[in-house]
Amino acid sequence: MAVNREAYLEIKEQLQAKKVTLVAVSKTKPVADIQELYDQGHRDFGENYVQELAEKQLVLPNDIRWHFIGHLQSNKVKYIAPFVHMVHGVDSYKLLLEIDKQARKSDRVINCLLQVHVAQEETKFGFNEIELVQVIDAVHKYKHVGELRHVQVRGLMGMASLTDDMEQVRREFTYLKMLFDHFATLPGNAAFDTLSMGMSSDYQLAIEEGSNMVRIGSLLFGARQK
Ligand SMILES: *Cc1c(COP(=O)(O)O)cnc(C)c1O
Hints:
The protein is an alpha/beta fold. The protein has a single domain (5-220), classed as TIM Barrel, CATH 3.20.20.10. It is built from nine helices and eight strands. The structure holds pyridoxal-5'-phosphate (PLP).
């Protein structure tokens, strides 16, 4: 088995003390690995690919909270809307509307995190600060007239730059936390309570900077094959 139980128990203990949620990122890993952590009591799992997630969900227990952490295309929302617990990478207004539409069909409310572009790489997705303000404002207005009832914007998600410069990574996390605090304290934003930042290589730093949800894959399941 490829699951590193010792690492899991250690990380779990560390995070519990700080009230940080651990999303175990199981992309590319077999269902047996997920089942093994499930049997240890773990329930939050993260996946990046729609088809892979849909296939795993079919054969794994129903009380798993599935987090979709990849880049989600609007035309694929329908495959995960009936069961997904949280979508971390909402990076366009159009996508948020589509999630609402598909969640309505299943009579569900889907938790969403708005992805913020903080990294230096152009390839990463996400809103900038000005776009964030616009989207959050628009969501408020829609909610006010009784629309968008099937999505709940719960907070922000971000990925730091791929770099060994940990001070750069720290600055990006500090910035994300500052944005998060700004929106979380706006009137009527009580549900805005989740800041998803930190992965295997930088989760300690992310927690120091105020993350309350980390997405950890390789430390738990071993390195992924390319
Ligand atoms: C793969 C992935 C992770 C986990 O990465 P590790 O380095 O294996 O911990 C976290 N977040 C996102 C968005 C990912 O795609």
